[in-house]
Amino acid sequence: MNTFIILLSLAIWGGVHSILASHFAKDMFKDILGSFYRLTYNLFAVITFAPILYLLVILEDQSLYQVAVPWSFAMRGGQALSALLLLVAVIQTDTLSFIGLRQLFEEDNPGRLVTRGLYNLVRHPLYLFSLTFLWLSPSMSVNSLVFNIGVTLYFVIGAYFEERKLLRDFGEAYADYKRRTPFLIPGLNF
Q1: Exposure b/e, 72-99, CB count within 10 A at least 16 = b
Q2: In sequence order, which residues have a C-beta less than 8 Å from that of residue 33 and are 6 or more positions away?
Q3: Residue 115: helix, strand or coil by DSSP?
Q4: Could you tell me the pTM of the whole model?
Q5: How far is the C-alpha of 163 from the C-alpha of 174, rounded, in Å?
Q6: What is the per-residue pLDDT across 147-183, written as a single tens digit (0 to 9) for each?
């Protein structure tokens, strides 16, 4: 039952998150929220994700494995590197705009296609490094495994819809970028 609860909560969150990221919802809510849309969207995403994390803590769980030292240190090092690269990817997207703060002080621009830095290696470094951070955990329980699988599915499905939106927004520039840059894994292009 816990598996179902975790996957259902992720599916509901992911569905709402994806709908709110659509052009339709963005245009509708921008009329109401104006320059506060992006910041509100991000705050809503974080606040509504917190109950899912709470479920992972309160639901009955069973350990699957615990990686021993020194390998656990190597995995924690991989997580630290993933967190650092995730931060770099956020910075490369223009952190203030990503969070929604720049829009409060400047006119909201449609954005630009980021293809430099980590985005030159993979199209979705935010997803890639979030996933490597999750999967490199040296301890795994049934609930965390289900959570990791659910988040992985959400990222893959979300990336599909995000790419459709980016093709609509940036046209041939994104199509060219997509042809030459791997999806999530360097050397493997979808």
Answers
A1: eeebeebbeebeebbeebbebbeeebbe
A2: 40
A3: coil
A4: 0.89
A5: 9
A6: 999 999 999 988 888 899 899 999 999 999 999 999 8
